[in-house]
Amino acid sequence: MPVTIAIEQPDTLPDPPSRVRLVLLVDDSRLQRRILRASLERWGYAVEECGSAEEALGICGDRPVDLIISDWMMPGMNGPEFCRAFRALPRDSYGYFILLTSKSETGEMVHGLDVGADEFLTKPVNANELRARIASGERILRMEHQLRERNRLLSSTLAELRGLYDAIDRDLVEARKLQQSLVRERSRRFGDSAVSLLLRPCGHVGGDLVGFFPAGEGQVGLYSVDVSGHGISSAMITARLAGLLSSTSAEQNLALDEDADGTIRVRPPEEVVEHLNRLFHEELETEHYFTILLAVVSLDSGLVRFVQAGHPYPVIQRADGRVELVGAGGLPVGLIPGASFEAGEVRLAPGDRILLASDGITECPSPSGAQLDDAGLCALMERNAAVRGEAFLEAVMDGLIGFAGRPDLPDDISAVLFEFG
């Protein structure tokens, strides 16, 4: 039996809402719909109405209904059943649902909430109470709209960032190729002696650099560099250093000098590193610094003259497999203007070799966090004493991966191996 709805008009009306664009009235009583519609239109809402839940579902499928006011008791599908069906419709936005009822039992209210109703109004409807319920729905819809808009902007921003990341990733892939090209030769023989290089950045590009260069008659220069930090800025510094140390021309290689008669000779390693330190402070405005181990080897006598500027100790492996550390440490390059650096010497006998390794090797962590350290590197070299050249460096790499328990090591890995014949 229809229930009469009395509408009491509020004294003042707020401005029309901005988020509720369409209100749908669902009631089998035309009179009740007319009374509610008059109030809603007076408050500035666009209103659609229908007499059954089945018809209402058709309207909701065709138009973006923002707010529904539905009677509970209707022939056919009742209000709660309609609410459940409405919630099952595919929608881009939320729809606020108010049930009109003469029921006041708690169990019935709980059932209405269970099927998805947001608010209840008891008949006869008080206009101020109805307006308050709609205002509450307005706030919910406004927040939902803001959330959807922010999600849209977030998705759009993420798509742009994904595009930028893909572009940067492609550039970094090319940068990795270019950085690897700085080490054009991974091995070379010098008579009975041989040099082998290992360079594996932990990311696309890294801050490690290794290389060698002919250093005049009967000598070869070796260098191992580790720039602080990782990534693009560190890699750019390694590229600059490669240009300063890798050339065979005395005009381009800081480690070489040319006499008046055109003879190429090597500069003392300590002078070269002091020059690099001065150049770093005068020309490069950067917070980076780097460690370097620069060595010059005499191919006939086996004499190695080297500078250890903050780099790990050179490791000598004798022909009988014994391993020893040499060097006295020293300051990194780029920390202190005017710093001086001292050279050290060691002599290789036939069959001996020297390894210049970055701290990515000695500081490689195990799963428990313990570092390989110098002792671990020495043990690794002793286990592979019979392995030569690039195969030895690969064995060191395999040993590091086994020690770390994972293939993706946290730091750049680099090394120079010189084997004296």
From TrEMBL:
GO terms for biological process: phosphorelay signal transduction system. GO terms for molecular function: phosphatase activity. Residues 22-138 form the Response regulatory domain. It comes from the Bacteria. InterPro entries: Bact_Sigma-Reg, CheY-like_superfamily, PPM-type-like_dom_sf, PPM-type_phosphatase-like_dom, Sig_transdc_resp-reg_receiver. The modification 4-aspartylphosphate is found at residue 71. Pfam families: Response_reg (PF00072), SpoIIE (PF07228). This is SpoIIE family protein phosphatase. The lineage of its organism: Bacteria, Pseudomonadati, Pseudomonadota, Alphaproteobacteria, Rhodobacterales.
